[in-house]
Amino acid sequence: MRKDIADALKLNMAVVREGYEKQAFADNGNRFLTGNGYMGIRGTLTEARKADMPCVNLAGIHHRKGNEWMEPLNAPNPLYFALEGYSLPENADKVVSHTLSLDMLHGFFLRETVFDTGIGHLTLRVQRFCHMQDVHLLAARIWLCSDTEMDLKVHMGIDRDVWDIHGPHFSAFETEDSGECTVLLGLTDDGQQVASALHFPPVCAASSGEMRSAAVHLFAKEAYTLDLVSSVFTSKDTPLPSQSALDALNTCPAFDALLTSHKALWASLWEKTQVEISGDKDAELAMRNAIYHLLSIAPRHASDLSVAARGLSGQTYKGAIFWDTEMFMLDFYLACLPEVARSCLNYRIQSLPGALEKAKAYGLEGAFYAWESVEGGKDACSDYNVTDVFTGRPMRTFFRDKQVHITADIVYGLRKYVAWTGDTGMLAQGGARVVYEAARFYLSLITRRLLSDTYDLLDVIGPDEYHERVNNNAYTNEMARMTLSYAADICPKYLDIPEEEIRLFREAASHLKVQAPDPETGVIAQFDGYLALEDVSVETVRSRLLDPKEYWGGAYGVASHTQVIKQADVIALLEVLPGYDRGIKEKNYDYYEKRTEHGSSLSACMYALCACDIGRPEAAYPLFMKSAQADIAGGGKQWAGLVYIGGTHPAAAGGAYMVLTRGFLGLTWENGEPQLHPRLPAAWERVRLKVQRDGKTYMLDTEEA
Q: What's this model's pTM, rounded to 2 decimal places?
């Protein structure tokens, strides 16, 4: 075992998987992802081709192929490398041993495979990373060693056969050679460009083209090393991405210097974010893995870029920005990288014109933010998000139209950012305008009854997507109320708006229907009529499926006419907004948890938070681990109908962080200082971690609580 991965293992900072598993390529692509906020490389083998779903996924650049879904672009893979006669999976019968590792301490993907050559053993080792400082660079070091002298043929280069879900996105390619460097430029039909460049090692210097071959002679038990350094630029970065990619390679330092600066940046990030959980190494590793993924996709290089729902693991969920960022990831970024939190919210401020345009298209006022936001705030969400498994036809869904809570979720994020950082400049620099237009949106959407003073939010979808087009969803109503009240409080300080409008905001907030707890049971109805639906178990509903990929929701889904829900909805409300006492939380936890399928990776963390609040840390623990281990464990829901939705789970990672800090540590703030009220699982002895607030760094330690 290499020393670096051994050191990472000793520090409980490595994920290792032994043995070659042909069918594990999808999960391993997520499990061993490396990234730097600008791009992410799935943790696939260097010789992986399109069928194995390799990709270099790019942030903030999208394309739509014909009438297909809009997706982020994947760059041509510039680190393709294969051994002739020993590539996997076709030579799996020659594998003696196979190990994949993620060195989280240094942000490395590591692979070691030993092959039986018939005359001895051949070892292939790979170390690959996205440079954490210069985000356009990525590199790999390859070691070859045989216990007998032998000749090999190797193939390396830039693979233009890009894996796309709804592509192909590149309509043409151009290749340019420049000495030892080659650049492959992919062009889309709408004029976008992505350049992948590679600096070939000297063994290939006399060749040309984007894919090259070389003969390698191995002496017995002597390591042979090849270094591959590459760069990626797009037309979003520069008018001449090909030239920029070549310039980056011609001026970048040698591999060892890249390695040193990359490791130094990771060390500084871990200094801010390291977590110690004494007494439970599995939980400690899971939490560190969650943090690793949040660090790998953080847009530290940008001032107005957010984090996609699947991070940088591919084109699933269209590479779009969902409510996940504000509601699940923001706690981590505020506590550890507040500049990233600011960038995520700046993205919402910059995309306000798109939200205004969307509201106008629906005949509404104010800002209706995109459910699946891409550049400019455009909504990438399709009217047909699910394919019927029986007919193969697209099914009409209403996520784009009816998940109106998204606008309030963004206001919630802005409000939390200002409260945490004290940075009211965010409001002065466009945030207050977002809040104002959000309040105007709800004002135009709310219905007033003629025969009573009750106002309604009709025909919506709450966080539970299995029940579409419901009335007065509890979560949505309360988040809208929060938005209207916040707008009335802060907008007059930053904007010149009529007093009458402020009065209407307050009036709507005070009259909007409340889903009050039932006086006998204490249960809050998820929406009007929810408690009258068929009350059956999750397992009963699952037994009604005719196909395992069948969609549970929609007009005809097996769950849509029952009380079985996809994910935390009322429980999310109880954990997001203050004012609900322990008794109400306990009664609703007991009611809703057993009726929840947890069909979303966003669900478990909210129930874990609630379990902590009602004094049940042991019940919270498996839900916490479900969130924290989402990308280590793999599996999970991979399909929505016939659409692949696999990828990493940064919202679950952020949710795990919320459970750790707000749940198990009981972190609150009093007079600007942190206070801990620990409710730890029985096996946990001590928790230590750092957080930042108001420009100060605090070490939280349960032994000092």
A: 0.96
